[in-house]
Design a protein that fits this description.
946 residues, 8-stranded parallel β-barrel, 22 helices, 42 strands, globular
């Protein structure tokens, strides 16, 4: 290593220096570091340091910089004095202007947060490099810090000291070489003779070894082996061509007796900034395909073994969905599905296997599929942190049998064991490529057994006529740093997680944010999704907080999935997610995000919160009973808790009605609606806060929903917002009406599990850790979950006073007949959606051509009338129909409405509703001579023109 001097030990400084205890400098490429301008002394004129042609070099800087490299750590300031171990060195850094001046504006697009930073170079003013590639590789294995001093002529005082974030240079040096073209495998790969090879990406590690344990049957349960491990060292290749991977080849594995079924861990010696020293970490493989119980060790598994391929998985092909716009999605949690199902053997409740049994739950899923649900979205099924997998370690809450509907005792019992019971939604990833073990049968949680059970579940769901979508969580991990649940950060500290400007892990997702804009984090996301498609034949993915990923990452994912989809599942892989614009990446601060209005450029759908809020009224921070929305009585059936003026409510309801209309028409940004002033308004001109209400380029860009696993259930929102005395029969009608606003539209519709059964979580607004007591579903429809006590205080306490009064109302507890009535009305909506391609035209052009909301000289609050005209274009979408008329009347009383545009057209109530479960909708009338429609109160009617 050239031009390196020993660390200079400075004179004491008696005040706290900027940057100490932080990592505010960045190593950007082989020769460049970035220094934040706010750490410069006040006397430094940053503008004077800019490169100014023709000189081509900035003015002399009144401060100097040095890169401190301490292989074993320990470099620090003590009372302003720089101290370091005997192996530490200081490399002079030369000021080369501002970073954007040195790298150029195009290169800065990869590092927008570093604009305005000073460029410090490992090249001198003559362009000679002080550090070569092999030296950089070694420097990155130890502590790195930058010290700032005043010029020697002014005493050389230390004015700032901070550590260095290295993820940019790691991407620059290693990520291209470790790209996912198949030439740089990661994890355990089974060779032709059944002997594995191994690879781990750990470019900053000092040393890496593979620890392996022999085990039993590689296809079934493999008991946790104890005893002496087999140690297999991994070699670092030549530094000039090394891609950061440590490898154990087939020959080394064979010689050590490692084979399919072996358990293994990586032993990684690596410098950890958080502890300030080199640590020896025993870590599972982030590319694990199988694990022992509680993820203690990785397991080598041959996924191609025939005995890991159930017959149902081999034989039941993925069902066909005609278009993404036509999708009807049903969201379900694996444990919720069978935890309270008495027709499932007790030992199989809450497991993958429950999907393969003849039970109340599977009968209900088949019923939904027959009516029109075509896609089953499963909440996280990858290995997560929050549930003990060993049954003996799982605690069971002791729910008092005599608790009242508003008692605090049930939630107290659940809270006492919440972190050790069998329940959690699972949004705390541990290993992304392995099925979660707590959902496997007790004797099948180890090794390849859970692979078999997961595949068996997928095959069973395909056999019901449903595609399978998995909930993917790549925006955060369950832990970081040296936490036992942390994998990535104990292998390459500071790389996989998104760090703020001070070097702290960003936590805006409430967890440890992952930086999928970093190349190897992006690769892990892509490799995991490809594995689920190829190895398990899943049909699509829903991305949690998808706005934390870049549009470029999602495009790379699409391209990778397109390569394997036809052979694996026979159709394109469906992608959608939460496109919220939030956190440190908001407003494209770090990259172009996969958010609402942007993800659609790739054909990726995003949840439409506009229609949700239009229907519900959303929730007031202090009183969940206000404001009401179109689906629960705003203006048409006031509940008495909203003290706004009549005019304010009327204006608000008119806006919410427009949001519902837009959703029904595919939420297209260029769809035009007639305004109250007679002027036509484009969907993107209507506002939703500071954003356009409509953001879609195609109808598939928007996934319409009124409830999901998070927030209150639809029934619970209606319990809050409908007037207290509303009869159960009318609550059922409003439940159906709310579902109709998303089911009868042109975009994919999304239902939360049990919403058709009036499912309640006893008003719990966030039941992720509320146990089976608040979450389990009764598919037989005897009990909807209402009044199981006050929901857990941690997430509901502020609303307890309101909740207690509502939960004590026994008239809000539906009988079995009520639940059955709600189910049948909801199934009729699915049958209507499936009955005609007019409900899923599939393109923006066809929607603009054929969908309209005819108006007349009327102003009926909340009324929605949608015409889908099959005679409006040259093609005939549905040969059996000339048009469809959808009328949504949320008011308690019947509405009689004249529509001039419908005069002399002949509409009659659809056969599905004439023969359906709701007797009241059959009173719908249409008079062709006057174009007058009469629709009963709280009713959705679909009329056909033949």
């Amino acid at each position: 290593m050239a031009n390196v001097v020993p660390v200079h030990h400075d004179a004491p400084v008696r005040h706290e220096l900027p940057g100490v205890g932080e990592a505010r400098a960045y190593w950007v490429d082989e020769t460049t570091l970035a220094w934040p301008a706010d750490l410069l002394p006040a006397m430094v004129d940053v503008e004077a340091l800019r490169v100014r042609p023709p000189e081509g070099f900035p003015a002399q800087c009144p401060v100097t910089f040095g890169l401190i490299a301490a292989p074993s750590g320990g470099a620090r300031l003590v009372d302003g004095i720089l101290q370091a171990g005997p192996d530490a060195q200081e490399i002079p850094l030369c000021v080369h202007g501002l970073l954007e001046d040195l790298l150029g504006q195009e290169a800065m697009t990869a590092h927008p947060a570093l604009r305005g930073y000073l460029a410090l170079s490992l090249e001198d003013e003559f362009g000679s490099r002080r550090v070569e590639r092999e030296d950089i590789t070694l420097l990155l294995t130890g502590q790195l810090a930058v010290v700032q001093r005043t010029a020697a002529s002014t005493g050389g005082w230390v004015t700032a000291f901070t550590e260095v974030q290295t993820w940019p240079v790691l991407d620059r040096l290693y990520a291209d070489a470790a790209a996912r073209d198949g030439s740089a495998p990661l994890g355990a790969a089974i060779g032709p003779d059944g002997v594995p090879s191994f690879a781990l990406w750990a470019p900053t590690a000092v040393d890496v070894a593979l620890l392996a344990w022999p085990t039993g049957d590689p296809a079934g349960s493999v008991p946790l082996a104890e005893g002496d491990p087999i140690r297999v060292p991994a070699d670092r290749a030549d530094a000039d061509s090394w891609d950061g991977r440590w490898e154990v080849g087939v020959e080394a594995a064979r010689a050590a007796g490692v084979n399919a079924g072996s358990q293994y861990l990586w032993e990684v010696r690596v410098y950890v900034p958080a502890t300030g020293r080199v640590e020896t970490n025993l870590v599972t493989d982030p590319y694990s395909r199988a694990l022992t119980v509680d993820s203690r060790r990785s397991v080598v598994v041959d996924l191609n073994r025939r005995d890991l391929k159930p017959s149902s998985w081999r034989e039941n092909l993925s069902p066909v969905v005609i278009s993404d716009a036509a999708r009807s999605i049903y969201e379900l949690h694996v444990r919720d599905f069978s935890a309270a199902d008495p027709t499932v053997p007790e030992e199989l409740r809450g497991t993958y296997t429950a999907f393969s049994l003849a039970s109340d739950g599977t009968r209900h899923l088949r019923r939904l599929a027959a009516a029109g649900i075509d896609t089953l979205h499963l909440l996280p099924t990858f290995d997560f942190c929050s549930v003990p997998e060993a049954r003996a370690a799982q605690r069971t809450p002791q729910i008092p049998a005599d608790a009242s509907p508003a008692s605090r005792r049930p939630q107290a019992a659940i809270t006492a064991v919440a972190d050790d019971d069998a329940y959690n939604w699972g949004y705390d990833p541990w290993h992304w490529l392995v099925p979660e073990g707590s959902y496997a049968r007790e004797d099948h949680q180890d090794g390849g057994a859970r692979v078999y059970e997961f595949r068996e579940m997928v095959g069973a769901i395909h056999g019901m006529g449903l595609q399978v979508v998995l909930d993917q969580v790549f925006n955060h991990t369950g832990a970081s740093g040296q936490d036992p649940h942390s994998v990535l950060d104990r292998i390459v500290p500071g790389y996989y997680h998104r760090l703020d400007a001070a070097g702290n892990v960003e936590m805006s997702t409430c967890r440890n944010n992952i930086a999928t804009e970093h190349r190897m984090a992006e690769r892990l996301l892509i490799d995991a999704c490809v594995s689920w498609v190829v190895d398990y034949r899943v049909d699509g993915f829903r991305f949690d907080l998808m706005g934390y990923h870049s549009l470029a990452t999602m495009a790379q994912l699409q391209a990778a999935l397109a390569e394997v989809a036809e052979d694996a599942v026979g159709h394109p892989v469906y992608l959608y997610g939460e496109g919220w614009n939030m956190g440190e990446v908001a407003n494209n601060a770090l990259f172009t995000q996969a958010t609402q209005g942007q993800a659609g450029l790739l054909g990726i759908g995003t949840f439409n919160d506009r229609v949700r809020d239009a229907v519900h009224g959303h929730s007031n921070d202090t009183d969940p009973r206000v404001p009401q929305g179109l689906g629960n009585g705003e203006l048409t059936d006031p509940n008495g808790y909203d003290d706004r003026s009549e005019e304010a409510k009327r204006d608000d309801l008119a806006w919410r009605t427009d949001l519902v209309r837009l959703a029904l028409a595919g939420n297209l940004r260029d769809f035009e609606l007639p305004g109250s002033d007679g002027r036509w308004v484009r969907g993107e001109e209507i506002r939703y806060g500071e954003q356009p209400a409509a953001y879609g380029l195609t109808p598939a860009d928007s996934v319409n929903y009124v409830d999901a696993h998070d927030d209150e259930t639809l029934f619970d929102r209606l319990a809050y917002k409908l007037p207290p005395g509303t009869p159960m029969s009318e609550r059922i009608r409003m439940n159906t009406l709310c579902l109709a606003t998303v089911t009868l539209g042109q975009s994919p519709c999304f239902w939360a599990a049990g919403t058709e059964l009036l499912r309640s979580k006893s008003l719990d607004r966030d039941s992720y850790n509320s146990g089976d007591h608040f979450n389990a579903i009764d598919w037989a429809g005897r009990d909807n979950g209402w009044g199981r006590g006050l929901p857990p205080a941690a997430r509901n306490f502020d609303a307890w006073v309101v909740q207690a009064g509502i939960l004590m109302r026994e008239d809000l507890r539906p009988a079995a007949a009520d639940i059955a009535a709600a189910r049948e009305q909801a199934l009729d909506l699915l049958r209507l959606r499936r009955s005609s391609h007019l409900f899923s035209l599939g393109s923006a052009a066809l929607i603009r051509e054929r969908v309209s909301f005819p108006t007349g000289d009327f102003d009926t609050p909340g009324l929605v009338i949608m015409l889908i005209d099959d005679g409006a274009g040259a093609s005939d979408v549905d040969p059996d129909l000339d048009g469809l008329l959808v009328v949504i009347n949320p008011a308690p009383g019947a509405v009689e409405q004249r529509v001039d545009a419908l005069v002399d057209r002949y509409f009659e109530l659809s056969d599905i509703q004439m023969e359906g479960a709701d007797p009241i909708v059959k009173d719908t009338r249409f008079d062709a001579t006057t174009g007058t429609i009469t629709v009963p109160g709280r009713t959705v009617a679909v009329l056909c023109e033949r």
